[in-house]
């Protein structure tokens, strides 16, 4: 398998605390300069403290990495896989320092975030720049090519569909066919969605597109059409700043008022069952549903499903071929087609943070 021009794969994630003492410094890393109200931080701190200070995300990434290394080896790809986080150990800058020491020249970058927006894409690209800058000259750091968005890759969609089907089957028989599917993702400020992607609005548009695909496949497989909505969780920020709505809990109330008795919550905005999923959905939203008398299930994320792991290999091979100037097959579902390999200038722009980025058209690593 030809993976040239790459001599490494860099796996980038959010990071999370592993023990009680980590929680406050982790939250400081995440929220530095972002104007998050103190009450919100205390509240989110509790989600972690209540679970011994440990987020599930790092163990999920370790498990994914083990499967990914196995998948690559099984398919004859001999490529070192590095792991760096934006907000916790192993920190991205330490990982890039190691890559420099190992003589890595060019790496494909896979981020555990599938959609466009400042928080879910551009901020990752800022952090790539900072990590290269903090460890020497950006232009002699490994060239970092972020793999395209994969929310619409068949290997991401397939396990999500299976998960929704399994959750529907788990409902009492008399309720299954009426079950409403709530696709859930992280809320972001509406202004952040307005600037998401090259033309704006991409965060919501991508979610709506993939939700439609999942709903359609579920309907095909069951022979029953389920109504669905896109809803949001984990709202943060100051109360006067508008964020995407409806919140999943508010929406459950509205559905209960309309006589909806069964719901499947599909966390399509997330790639693993991390804290947003186990707290905001499994703890909070399921309790809301129970209080309202709605029978609810939360369907699994793609996690370490072998089809999702294989999607990373597919994206790597696709991009390697494209960078070699060969025709590359780009698997997608839905109506939006593949996102650009290199983010256009100004993609996911954020007024409040104008740090330099890598992996876009204007990356200093692509100059000349
Ligand atoms: C779009 C999006 C994703 C999905 C894409 C992706 O995965 O990247 C995501 C993922 C995650 N968010 C996470 C944790 C946190 N996010 C916060 C704050 C914020 N998230 C935002 C957006 C997103 N976040 C935004 C606009 C803020 C406001 C502050 C700011 O403008 O940056 C805060 C601070 C407290 C609070 O404000 O709630 C925490 C602790 C964890 C780790 C979970 C774990 O530990 O298992 C993960 C995977
Ligand atoms: Fe977040």
TrEMBL record:
Reactions the enzyme catalyzes: Fe-coproporphyrin III + 2 H(+) = coproporphyrin III + Fe(2+)
Its EC number(s): 4.99.1.9
Coiled coil: none
Protein name, UniProt field: Coproporphyrin III ferrochelatase
UniProt binding sites for Fe-coproporphyrin III: 55, 124
Taxonomic superkingdom: Bacteria
Pathway named in the protein's UniProt entry: Porphyrin-containing compound metabolism; protoheme biosynthesis
Annotated TM spans: none
Keyword Electron transport recorded: no
InterPro entries the UniProt entry points to: Ferrochelatase, Ferrochelatase_C, Ferrochelatase_N
Keyword DNA-binding assigned: no
């Amino acid at each position: 398998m030809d993976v040239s021009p790459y001599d490494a794969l860099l796996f980038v994630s959010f990071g999370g605390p592993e023990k009680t003492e980590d929680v406050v410094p982790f939250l400081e890393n995440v929220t530095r300069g972002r104007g998050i109200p103190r009450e919100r931080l205390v509240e989110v701190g509790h989600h972690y403290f209540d679970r011994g200070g440990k987020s599930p995300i790092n163990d999920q990434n370790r498990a994914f990495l083990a499967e990914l290394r196995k998948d690559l080896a099984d398919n004859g790809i001999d490529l070192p896989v590095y792991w760096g986080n934006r907000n916790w150990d192993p920190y991205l800058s330490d990982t890039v320092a190691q890559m420099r020491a190992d003589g890595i020249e060019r790496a494909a970058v896979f981020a555990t975030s599938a959609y466009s927006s400042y928080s879910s894409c551009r901020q990752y690209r800022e952090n790539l720049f900072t990590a290269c800058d903090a460890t020497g000259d950006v232009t002699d750091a490994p060239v970092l090519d972020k793999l395209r968005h994969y929310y619409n890759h068949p290997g991401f969609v397939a396990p999500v569909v299976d998960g929704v089907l399994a959750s529907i089957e788990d409902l009492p028989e008399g309720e299954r066919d009426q079950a409403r599917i709530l696709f859930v993702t992280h809320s972001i400020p509406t202004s952040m969605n307005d600037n998401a992607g090259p033309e704006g609005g991409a965060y919501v548009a991508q979610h709506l597109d993939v939700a439609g695909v999942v709903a359609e496949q579920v309907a095909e497989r069951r022979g029953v059409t389920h109504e669905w909505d896109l809803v949001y969780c984990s709202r943060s920020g100051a109360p006067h700043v508008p964020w995407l709505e409806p919140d999943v809990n508010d929406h459950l109330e509205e559905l209960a008022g309309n006589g909806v008795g069964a719901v499947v919550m599909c966390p399509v905005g997330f790639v693993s069952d991390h804290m947003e999923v186990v707290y905001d959905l499994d703890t909070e939203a399921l309790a809301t549903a129970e209080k309202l008398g709605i029978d609810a299930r939360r369907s699994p994320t793609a996690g370490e499903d072998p089809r999702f792991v294989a999607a990373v290999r597919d994206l790597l091979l696709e991009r390697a071929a494209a960078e070699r100037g060969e025709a590359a097959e780009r698997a997608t579902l839905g109506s939006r087609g593949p996102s650009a390999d290199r983010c256009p200038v100004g993609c996911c722009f954020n007024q409040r943070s104008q740090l330099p980025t890598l992996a876009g058209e204007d990356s200093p690593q692509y100059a000349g």
